[in-house]
User: Which sequence fits this backbone?
């Protein structure tokens, strides 16, 4: 399926460009790290996507949870359908959503919903929005 996380990122980026209106960007800088994929929806909602090739649920959850400081919603996305234990892990925490990318059928499957962030740090959120806007206006990173 995917040999590297970067291949997975590119596949999801292409999916967003083809199937959704909005602005996806890979490796968006936020909070002294980068978010694998950030998607600015047509409704002006920021979604963070942490992508994992393997079921490192706790590590993925911690990373995605931190993204709620700058994004409205945060998800972990896997390139395969996770075990029921993985879905339960996210259901119990109820802040970060869990999805899997069905590469064969070109669709994203929601397994556990994300809760809208109540802890965003507005200056960092605004910085991320400006970064995305600059990228889409100029075709390159600032």
Assistant:
């Amino acid at each position: 399926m995917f040999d590297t996380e970067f291949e997975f990122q590119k596949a999801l980026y292409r999916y967003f460009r083809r199937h959704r209106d909005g602005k996806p960007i890979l490796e968006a800088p936020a909070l002294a790290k980068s978010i694998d994929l950030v998607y600015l929806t047509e409704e002006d909602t920021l979604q963070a996507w942490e992508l994992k090739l393997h079921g490192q649920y706790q590590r993925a959850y911690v990373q995605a949870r931190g993204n709620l400081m700058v994004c409205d919603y945060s998800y972990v996305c896997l390139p395969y359908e996770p075990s029921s234990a993985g879905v339960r892990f996210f259901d119990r925490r109820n802040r970060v959503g869990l999805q899997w990318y069905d590469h064969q059928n070109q669709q994203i499957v929601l397994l556990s919903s994300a809760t809208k962030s109540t802890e965003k740090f507005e200056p960092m959120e605004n910085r991320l929005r400006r970064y995305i806007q600059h990228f889409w206006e100029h075709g390159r990173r600032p």
